[in-house]
Amino acid sequence: MNLDPKWVVGFVDGEGCFHIGISKHTSMKHGVQVLPEFVVTQHKRDVQVLYGLKAFFKCGVVRHEKQNVFCYRVRHRKALEAHILPFFERHKLKTKKRVDFLKFRRIVKMMSEGLHLSTEDLKEIRILRESPSTKET
């Protein structure tokens, strides 16, 4: 499947998600883990599109999520930094999802600088994650 960057932007605008998970993890320094992930979900009849995205971005996995649902997911921070962030910096999303992406990018960059390892910066990540998607970050 040969995907055009403009098509990818439109598809992700409609079907994608830039998510920052924060969950309890007792072996981590502050008892929580920050997990950034880029996800696109589809019905099983369109799973080939997810494999197309995986080939396009050259990273991530396609997984069976539940009964008729599959998802393309990128969680590895290095892959996010090398493939996902640069693509969406060059090819701008058109909807409010652009604001979600900008918050996501900021948090991933904070993590790259080790800023998710201090209590204060972790607090800032939580605030940023929860802030409304109404203004650019």
The global form is globular
Terminus-to-terminus distance: 34 Å
| Secondary-structure element order, N to C | HEEHEEHHH
| Rg result | 15 Å
Strand content: 15-25%
Which stretches are poorly predicted, pLDDT < 50 over at least 5 residues? none
Write down the CATH class. Answer: Alpha Beta
Helix count equals 5
Structure class: alpha+beta
In the CATH hierarchy, the architecture is Roll
- The total domain count is 1
Could you tell me the number of beta strands? 4
Mean pLDDT: 89
The proportion of residues forming helix, as a percent range, comes to: 40-55%
Description of the structure:
There is one protein chain. This protein starts with a helix and ends in a 7-residue tail after the last helix. The relative contact order is 0.17. The protein contains five helices and four strands, in the order αββαββααα. Helix 3 (77-90) packs across helix 4 (97-112) and helix 4 (97-112) packs antiparallel against helix 5 (119-130). Strands 1-2-4-3 form a four-stranded antiparallel beta sheet. A hairpin with a 7-residue loop joins strand 1 and strand 2. It has a single domain, classed as Roll (Endonuclease I-creI), CATH 3.10.28.10. It is globular. It has helices at 5-15, 47-57, 77-90, 97-112, 119-130, and strands at 16-24, 32-43, 61-66, 69-74. It is of the alpha+beta class and 137 residues long.
